[in-house]
């Protein structure tokens, strides 16, 4: 039995959203406010991949719009690309911080 493409996409979105919810609650617990700026409908409309459905998705959408508007001339979307990359690095830093705090709590609990 093979799932059709739509069912596979829904399943991966559910997995991604549960992971994001876990990171979101942990980040908020450590005083890092989290706000998702792109809606699910926007992400579907602009083809944001499951791996990119994070707190930087709104910047991915802006980058994709810029690419579409400029016929994919790479030099015309520098600001959008830089903002998207910077957001990704910030997300990575937040996740590392949350992971470090979790590990500290586990060691304290032992």
Termini distance? 45 Å
Please give the share of residues in helix: 55-70%
Radius of gyration, in angstroms, nearest whole number: 17 Å
Structural class: mainly alpha
The DSSP helix count reads: 4
Task: Give the SSE string.
Answer: HHHH
Mean pLDDT, as a whole number? Answer: 83
Low-confidence stretches: 1-9
The counted number of beta strands is 0
Largest sheet: none
| Strand proportion | under 5%
Global geometry:
elongated
SSE map:
Layout: H1 5-29, H2 40-45, H3 57-69, H4 78-109
Report on the architecture of this protein.
- By secondary structure, this protein is an all-alpha fold.
- 69% of the residues lie in helices and 0% in strands.
- It has 4 helices and no strands.
- α3 (57-69) packs antiparallel against α4.
- It is elongated and about 55 Å long.
Keywords:
110 residues; disordered N terminus; 0% strand
In summary, what is this structure?
With 110 residues, the chain is mostly helical.
